[in-house]
Design goal:
The complex is a heterodimer of chains A (about 110) and B (about 110). Chain A is mainly beta. Helices cover about 0% and strands about 55% of the residues of chain A. Classes of the chains: A mainly beta (about 110), B mainly beta (about 110).
Amino acid sequence: RKEVEQDPGPFNVPEGATVAFNCTYSNSASQSFFWYRQDCRKEPKLLMSVYSSGNEDGRFTAQLNRASQYISLLIRDSKLSDSATYLCVAHPLFGNEKLTFGTGTRLTIIP
Amino acid sequence: EPEVTQTPSHQVTQMGQEVILRCVPISNHLYFYWYRQILGQKVEFLVSFYNNEISEKSEIFDDQFSVERPDGSNFTLKIRSTKLEDSAMYFCASNGRGQGGELFFGEGSRLTVL
């Protein structure tokens, strides 16, 4: 089983719609989670950290469910500029330093 | 805004040749990393570097790979004898307080091995 698993998509969503992505992780020792955004042939950039209590940043809401080992990202009122690949990332709190990336979910916002 | 810079942006090399990829991390950052992304695949951790030594490396980072910080600003990744499967985008990243925080990635160096 992959350490971090995401639906690769693509998700083709009309502008203004709400879209949600899920991600599952297999390593229960993973403690920190993040959503990164990657535009085509560009570097990953941190979108937001994910907390158990859930967190919101403008149109973006991230949620962590430790019991089910999944992370979600919700984008409301989607914009054309939201078109990108969204990477789910896990990190253990102790021990090794590596971030484990999912393969990403590709989102295209359609005008 | 401070940024991580990488050179070259694209390098084409013959199989068996040595390649050095260069990175200038953000100046007050202490933790440095190399990741790679084969086309169409996920971003994979290669190595982390702190206090002038490797702190962790993945199974990908075999004896053909090495890193160094020769002059306090540059952070380099050397591949001694490139293989076809080394073709990928190599991303340098830095962080001010370990991987619990945000990683700042450079724009990447695309390596093509022929």
